[in-house]
Amino acid sequence: MIAAAAQPPASRPGGPASATSPLSERLSELLRRGKLEEAIRTVQEAYRRSPNDAAIRAEFVQLHMALAERLLRDERFADAERAAQAALSVEPTHAAARRLIEAIATARRDVSARVDEARRMIRLEWFEPAYDTLRQASALFPERRLEWAGDLLAAAEGAGDDHYFCKNFAQAFHYYDAVKHAGRPVADSLRQRWLQSMVFALADDIDHRDFPIEYWHKTVTTAEAFIGQRGDPVLALLRGLANEDLNDPRRAGENYAEAGGQRFAVRDAEALPLYEAHLDGLRRALCTIAASGRCLSDPFLMSPIFTPTGEILVP
């Protein structure tokens, strides 16, 4: 596996390149704001104007190596090579640039053996390391991606299943989503595991962060299109999560009741804040039932949660 050797700089290092100057101050500001690409363009323009300026040359090399390291972490290997080659064009003896280029070349030479190793791992059901190896091989040789696609998807689904059955739902969703985005036909059972993993992971996430309405709109519409059954109880759970996170307790209650095969009822407006205070408990109860593989609409399972008239039972 190829790994980046360093993180992009968050601040200017010492030395001549950090001498106080309008260019140095501009680059420092761009990096503080996380705008590495704009800093690269700025230093490239400065280098074209003054190719013999030692400070500008040092800035040029440093920033192109920072870009190369980031591209390496993102497994954009051809782009990482180009960034490192740009650094070498200014400083031909730059050791880190040479190491990076050689590491990518070595990985390319070894890729056939690594793919064979990944296939052995799949047979042994070591899906996660197999997926990592095949994903990187596909990034090293994009033109061979289709050749390895079947193995990559088998590893992704297997890794997703491993995490799903261990109830590591966020990790399971990561792998199932990779299968989804491959664009190949998938079984209905995988569609359901994709949906459940996403919903159960989000059910925990909304306790710690607020998502914008645009996120929920995209998430819900994408799930509805992929599942194809608007009446799916786990889809109703997803809509409930969205409305709970967007501070609409009545709609969230309606969605959660729908997930349990019930009709949400509130006796009067004054009772709504009481329901709102216990929506998280309702959400967790429904997710626990669904994650255990039991039917959400089972009246016996719903009886501790809803009254026969559809009201939420609040402790």
Could you give a short description of this structure?
By secondary structure, the chain is an all-alpha fold. Helices cover 68% and strands 0% of the residues.
Structural description of this entry:
This protein has 16 helices and no strands. The protein has 315 residues and is mainly α. The protein has 3 domains: 16-109, Serine Threonine Protein Phosphatase 5, Tetratricopeptide repeat; 111-164; 187-315, no CATH class. It starts with 21 loop residues before the first helix and ends in a 13-residue tail after the last helix.
Overall pLDDT metric: 85
* Number of helices, where a helix is a run of at least 4 consecutive DSSP H or I residues: 16
Strand segment tally: 0
* Class from secondary-structure proportions: mainly alpha
User: Percent of residues in helical segments?
Assistant: 55-70%
Radius of gyration, in angstroms, nearest whole number = 26 Å
Query: Which parts are unreliable, with pLDDT below 50 for 5 consecutive residues or more?
Result: 6-19
Tell me the series of helices and strands, N- to C-terminal.
Answer: HHHHHHHHHHHHHHHH
Tally of individual domains: 3
Largest sheet: none
Overall body shape: flat
Distance between the termini: 53 Å
Characteristic terms for this protein:
315 residues, mainly alpha, Serine Threonine Protein Phosphatase 5, Tetratricopeptide repeat, flat
How are the elements arranged and paired?
Layout: H1 22-32, H2 36-49, H3 54-73, H4 77-90, H5 95-109, H6 111-123, H7 127-140, H8 145-165, H9 169-181, H10 188-205, H11 213-227, H12 233-245, H13 249-259, H14 272-277, H15 279-291, H16 299-302
Helix pairs in contact: 1-2, 2-3, 3-4, 4-5, 6-7, 6-8, 7-8, 8-9, 9-10, 10-12, 10-15, 11-12, 12-13, 12-15, 13-15
